[in-house]
Structure prediction request, 98 residues.
Amino acid sequence: MAVSNNNNNNNSKERTQNIKEVEEKLGENPKITLKGGGKTKIMDFEQLRKPHCVRPSARFPVEDTAGGLLRTGGHRPQISDEEVSKRHHEQSHGQEDH
Prediction:
């Protein structure tokens, strides 16, 4: 087991050395190029660390977990009885013509 621990320590030291070398090559303000959707954007790493959305999302009351349909005053939106009869009438007359 001593050999295994020794190998792990060597690998860790090599990784640390590699990271230091890469950081030296990149300099103080490293840039990254992102390509997608036919566009190319050059960003620095600090921009990637920052959140993309500066506004926090709205918090909904815990007891209201039914989703967006019930956030309209506590009831599901419905069409009126008149609209239901009108649509039923239009559908039944539309089928007779065919």
In short: The longest strand covers residues 31-36. The first helix runs from residue 2 to 26. Helices lie at 2-26, 45-49, 81-97. Residues 12 and 18 are 10 Å apart (CA to CA).
